[in-house]
UniProtKB/TrEMBL annotation:
Ranges for domain Orc1-like AAA ATPase: 24-68
Matching CDD domains: AAA
Family matches, as Gene3D superfamilies: P-loop containing nucleotide triphosphate hydrolases (3.40.50.300)
Stored InterPro entries: AAA_16, P-loop_NTPase
Any Pfam family matching the protein: AAA_16
Protein name as annotated: Orc1-like AAA ATPase domain-containing protein
Amino acid sequence: MSSESDNTSGLLGWRLRAAREMAFVGREEELAVFNAALYGGGCSVLYVHGPGGIGKSALLRRFAHEAAVAERPVSMPVSMMDGRMSEPSPVAFEAEAELVLRDADAVLLIDNFERIQGLEGWLRERFLPRVPIGALVVIAGRNPPDMRWQADPGWAGALEVLPLRDLRAADAQALMDSCGVPAESRGPLLAFAGGHPLALLLGAAVAVKDGGAGRRWMPNRDVVATLLDELVGELPSAAHRHALEICAHAHTTTEDLLRAALPEDAGTLFQWLRRLPFVESSSLGLFPHDVVRQVLEADLRWRDPEAYAVMHDRIHAHLADRVRTASDVDVPGTVAALLYLHRGNGAPTSYDEVEFQEEVVREEDIGTLLRVATAAEGAASAGCAAFWAERQLEAFRLYRRTETGEPVAFSAWLRLAELDEEELTADPLVAMAWAHARATTPLRAGEHVVVSRLWALPPYRSNSPVMDLIQWRVIGNCVRSERMAWSYIETNKAWVERLRHYGMRDISERPLGDDAYTLFVHDWRAVPAQAWLERMNHLPVGGPSAATAVLSQAEFAEAVRKALRQLSRLDALAASPLTRTRLIAERAGQDPATALGDLLRQTIDDLREDPRAVKFHRALSVTFLRGTPTQELAAQRLGLPFTTYRRHLKAGIERVCADLWHRELYGANAPA
């Protein structure tokens, strides 16, 4: 391929290329690697891999443009662009790619390599070693390279592997700009497509055509069908399709979960799943790309709602049994996996985050418990914590920030069969619960009452991952307890609507400084754990109350921090208490989650106008707007020492919290 003369500007092909170039966004890191190799400072072979629709072909077209600008001869044969050689053999390949064997300046671009994957070994061992030094070969396909490339020390400096990921948030916004997507449709489109280029482009076409749909925008059947064809393709059998649908419905899929929901040859199907280019793995199991998850879910719900319900019930039953049988340390994670099935009801879904960790409390932790309890609720409440720690230390759990080890909260699961006078007077909340149980339905032989207590530092009392972790522990304890007659759960207002939704009753509310803690009761003899789980499984979809949220400054700041971390996830923003504050009420007519995301982005952008805050803007932008996966990489991209970057990021977050708090108190037009 060579540079084309100006007289081609009157051809349709020129117009198509120009439109594609206009729509190309992002990929700065990949282009930097390619250009380094192009100008002699990098690898000889660049291997790009990623799922269907992620933008590999568009990237190769941009590579071809960059090579032409550098006046390098480019070989990008149509058969290799399509991956459809009439005869996928070494002889046919050499005939197509012979330019790169005889010209040290040549650039060979091979697309859709998965269609000729059988040639990979020959390419590595026989063809590429004959390429002259200076030539550049780019291979793009869905599958990662065979491990033998990286196991061979000879390829260590000659091969560069680039996994192609979703577009960053800012690049996804730029792509929607280039497509002319209406502002009111962007939030729902981003929630569906994330940074997946093909999903964004297909969704953008629908959003532009149906611009009046606004916040009600949803992918139509054509978009879902096209994405299924492109991302998933033809599947070997119905069993393979069922396995993939299970993987999309569960948060993570293990072989035993697959066996419970689909008994047919689960081991073979699990091995097939883990090799798919759009399925990734973690310590918890397999999970698909977000767009694949959404289109598979949407398609099965529409195509076969009865099969969808059967699959859901089987997975729910398996995960409920796991909650009952899991080791103590695994209880929160297994509860969170169960609740993920109810993500449409606003259940938290970020349990794979490791921001906080849970520990069993030891004797040496009692001093820490008292300090946290005093800071959380005062000396009287700390006295209650000390009293119960002396009698039931095994009932306590400690929650720390993983990064710093800072203790931020404690919980206690107090089992009570009989209370003496000292115990009744030591803790008013326990006395209230005991009086309610005796007055309603007294205990029978062998039964006990449980009172769940918590002490959390002010910044963590509201919607925060640590509160979710504590509540997962509480729900797990409820399901696993034997001979429990009544449970009394002390919780803050972040979980009030959720526990009501799960069928528990609140019997009292007590103020604690700026917060109100509510006591929820459940009679486990009237509705045993199994019946309660079944009832929860068939609750209608319904979110928390739409009443205006009145947050303390600490709650507000914690909600802002959490929303910043979840800025690219519209479903997570929709669950934020900030969507029910004055901030969002002022933006009437806009979807609350979309309005919150737009407000956070605008607040970050506004910092550029303050010379004192430019460095804060840069740290916030690279971390939250550009979707950098780790803070270490963010510091590297900014060219800053990690400690300096963290200082700028912390100050930037505090500035955003302060600016938004000012607006919450005084309105959008109040002077700063």
